[in-house]
Automatic annotation (TrEMBL), chains A, B:
InterPro entries: Citrate_lyase_asu (IPR006472), NagB/RpiA_transferase-like (IPR037171). It catalyses: citrate = oxaloacetate + acetate; citrate + acetyl-CoA = (3S)-citryl-CoA + acetate. It comes from Candidatus Enterococcus moelleringii. It is found in: Cytoplasm. This is Citrate lyase alpha chain. Its EC number is 2.8.3.10, 4.1.3.6. Keywords: Cytoplasm, Lyase, Transferase. The keyword Lyase applies.
């Protein structure tokens, strides 16, 4: 069955009420009965929830074959906890048929790739899939298709009961002995724990893992003790220095800076750019750099941002410190500057993934967003964006908040160079649709700007401001002229991943690429 | 069937898995599958959730015959919102067969008594029942027995699905247009909104009612916009000046002060009185006065309180400002001093009823409490306490956090005069059991102190400290000697209220008193 982005979705994937993507507002106003955890009552006075080891916590929480465990990735490439836990479950306890429910998967969790190859881990539900894990899944080694969701789609799926978490293992920078936990005050701080909070509410069992035990009560906390069964203390939960990876760098590439400047120009040309506007950037080089160009326009026109949303970097914190941003609503921190800033500034707030982007609650912040600036691995002439698979068809990306903010915002701007190496970024048809074209408004490249024809209002705004723009077809032609028409990928029949829209409908599938070799 | 406090519970009340009270730890460790709301998805960008009227909000949220609505009573005797809403549902919309789920009911909601008499409101689930509402229920005018629960029992019942709230109407001192709401910053402030938070998570629909609309985002908030369907602005949500009623006064009665001093002596004689102890008082005059005597012992021994729990008054805020209390964990504020203090002191925190006392989560704060000082309408020689019915058998009280803190704390002290008017407070058998005797450790009266024989350790502590004590039988004899043996109440067969233990088992029933006249 074809969906609204023209992808064929096999009937076998449309079980248990699953539907195909039918446009960005298809689910609006429909009711959902939320799922809920099966929780252990604590009636007696308690002395402590401390366990001697992660294994003891696993046993107390009834770890078993066929279970689903979750973890968050606020520590990004510096996360130690997911691997520790996977090792205990698989190697120490010998469990099998395990499903992983992660906010992302990358090099820090590489051991999971091995367990997938060994058939111990048979299911993966995640936003990002990068590195070795992406390769083994792309090679067809996972027993069932990986389910890839956006940051808003994840809490939606948890609340819908499509992911029921048996045990959530949540790395926390500090915790007291009862599990009041947060991302600051420890020896390895991640700042916001917005990726972890929702799991603590919906998992049957929650284990807090920390390297810095503090006095009770550790308040205000991100994770409340009422949701925590066990607390484990380990030497190090992660390497906070690795949180800031190259994705979060501020670019000094002149081509990226030029694109960033053009993005700011586009923003300033729209009617949404007025006092009290709201804004989010992704972590790509040119996206982050938009902050610095936007500042000039804000000062010139004497306007302030009401809130900056999502993943947070020092750049936006500095804008707040200058008085240009009223509130930062922070789901994760990309660098030490942001980690040191959250909770220090009275209006730099932690929010969780449901507040951020869940399209099945009563109004996530993305639904109030004016502008979002996002990157892309590919974008096609229907404005569909791929941030999941490389041009070789291998899983190596993450939708993250991309589809959520694109759908919710009034003006979604994609910024990307026209080509990367020998690959066209703008193309006839993206390998994988992560964000549907009906959510994307403007494309800014190093070879020109294109506006989605659905947004004639924005076209008029750009014309009025004297900002030149072309059709996306012209940009694609230019890209093909520069690097050639991309070769068609050759796929096996096997579906190795399902890409869900933020509302739970099926947006696309990823098949196994052939011939595929490491 | 007799329960563990020797009360006969009719079989007809033991449906749907209901059990009789079987001791304070009976439910410990048992699993519960939590209930959850049926929630309306908001996928589209939103402009506002403001409604023109409460009626419009009711209609948008599908108000219907047979529905259950809830509200909180942080404004105590100054609450306007519950009555406003009840009038809209019953008088404007003409709905019938309505159930009320309240954190308490008193004079501020008197209109509900009329609707009970008229048969429009057919069910009541509450903690407190005072004033006219208590009288009409006691007169048998409610169609089904009222269900009376403690503050911890309420969130437990909601999570168990025993109370499913169709619409929660939550008074908030401030809100933005999307429903981020809190109890400070407005023209009528209640401080903590700890009674409201849990409802916002579990109700199918949530309506925030405020008299002070503020800019978006109103953060940090007590109620999150993701749980809110509608926002209504009214002239006044309440009269904050009426929050501090006589229950919250600081006594100057010498007899009460003497009892308070003796309570402090008992506390200081136990091994739990050491640096980092935790403490809660009720709102009765002598209970509140304990704070001032405790201060002396704390200073003398150079010890500090790690946390003060529960309803909060200026007295404990002043102790915190003097550096004697590390944290205040605040479910409701009893006076303006406390309202002005919460959120100003960095360690004066709002907590919700589930964090406070829910015995079905993974560890409420009451389970970590060292001392609680509570009042009583009656206490019997089995140490069972009545805080629900007057000596005439009419509903005129509230369990509140009484049973929760008594059960969770290491040392529960009841402080009460031996007689009130011509009534014995210490008696053979309380009219209604609100807090079972196995949760009560010490009784302090103006005629002496008695220790529960279950607590031989505390008896030894008092002996060691040279604090005289007698048996509770002796206190009862003294009371009867002073005011005579109480007359037996004459009951109809009709059960007008069921008193649930905090764990959901049935502790007692209240029958209709005969002859009964107003």
């Amino acid at each position: 069955m074809k969906n609204a982005v023209n992808r064929d979705i096999l009937d076998e994937l449309l079980k248990n009420g699953k539907e195909v993507y039918q446009g960005k507002y298809y689910m609006d106003g429909k009711y959902v009965k939320k799922d809920s955890p099966k929780s252990k009552r604590q009636v007696k006075p308690q002395e402590t929830k401390l366990c001697q080891s992660i294994r003891e916590a696993c046993e107390r929480c009834g770890a078993h074959d066929g279970m689903t465990f979750s973890f968050h990735t606020e520590f990004r490439d510096g996360d130690y906890v997911a691997s520790m836990v996977a090792k205990v479950l698989v190697e120490e306890m010998g469990l099998k048929d395990i499903t992983v429910a992660a906010t992302s998967l990358g090099n820090a969790q590489e051991v999971i790739a091995t367990y997938i190859e060994e058939g111990k881990i048979i299911g993966v539900q995640t936003s990002g899939v990068r590195g070795k894990i992406g390769e083994v899944i792309s090679a067809g080694k996972l027993a069932s298709p990986a389910i890839i969701r956006s940051h808003g789609g994840r809490p939606r799926a948890v609340e819908a009961g499509e992911v029921h978490i048996d045990i959530a293992f949540l790395a926390a920078s500090t915790s007291d002995i009862f599990g009041n936990a947060k991302g600051v005050g420890g020896k390895n701080n991640c700042g916001s724990m917005g990726f972890a909070v929702h799991d603590s509410h919906y998992a049957d069992h929650t284990v807090v893992i920390t390297d810095t035990l503090v006095g009770f009560p550790n308040l205000p906390s991100s994770i409340s003790a009422i949701d925590v069964d066990c607390v484990c203390v380990v030497d190090n939960i992660g390497d906070a220095a690795k949180i800031s990876t190259k994705e979060a760098r501020m670019t000094d590439n002149p081509r990226e800076l030029m694109m960033a400047e053009n993005v700011a120009k586009v923003i300033a040309a729209t009617p949404y750019f007025k006092d009290g506007f709201s804004f989010q950037t992704g972590v790509g080089g040119p996206s982050l750099a938009v902050n610095r160009f936007l500042e000039k326009y804000m000062v010139d026109r004497n306007i302030r941002m009401s809130f900056a949303l999502g993943g947070t970097s020092s750049a936006i914190c500095e804008l707040q410190d200058k008085g240009l941003v009223d509130h930062i609503l922070d789901t994760q921190d990309f660098d030490q500057g942001a980690i040191n800033h959250i909770f220090k500034h009275p209006n730099h707030h932690e929010i969780d993934l449901s507040e951020y982007a869940n399209p099945a609650n009563k109004g996530a912040y993305v639904n109030n967003l004016d502008f979002v600036v996002l990157s892309a691995l590919e974008i096609d002439t229907s404005f569909n964006v791929n941030v999941i698979t490389g041009s070789d068809g291998v899983l190596r990306g993450a939708p993250g908040g991309h589809p959520d903010t694109a759908a919710g915002s009034k003006c979604c701007i994609i910024v990307t160079p026209l080509t990367r190496g020998r690959m066209a970024t703008v193309c006839d048809e993206v390998v994988t649709v992560a964000t549907p074209g009906d959510c994307v408004d403007v494309l800014v490249t190093d070879y020109g700007i294109a506006v989605n024809p659905l947004r004639q209002d924005l076209i008029a705004n750009l014309d009025e401001a004297g900002i030149p723009h072309v059709t996306i077809q012209e940009l694609k032609e230019k890209a093909y002229e520069l690097v050639g028409v991309p070769d068609k990928l050759d796929w096996e029949d096997k579906v190795i991943a399902v890409v869900e829209s933020r509302d739970g409908t099926i947006l696309d599938v990823v098949k196994q690429v052939k011939p595929f070799s490491f």
